[in-house]
Sequence to fold (128 residues):
Amino acid sequence: MRILVVCGAGASSTFVAQRVRHAAHDQGLAYIAFAGTEQSLPIDLDAADVVLVGPHLGHALERIERDAAPRGTTVVLLPPDIFTDLDGTRTLALVRAAVGGSGGPLPAAEPAPAPQTTSEPDSDGHDI
Fold:
């Protein structure tokens, strides 16, 4: 899951993106979060599955949703107090609610294959 956090100049979105990235990692989720600006949005949308819009950009929400729709990108307007979410867990919960909790866990290492036997079983089914 690729999460774009958009604000006016990119400063506050950088903090939110970093916090949600850490929260996702702590929960074992394969999410990537990065910051962008309102001006970089037309380019950044191509790399995002979800766009988190800073509360001060509420006036641009309809335009952002319109630009995101053809790409299948989900848009979420962040609440005004989002910058108090210091560990990113509340922001991550907003993302997961918006996309139905998808994203899944980080891939686990594959288990080692079971050893192969080359001997024949005896009448009791044991290898000899």
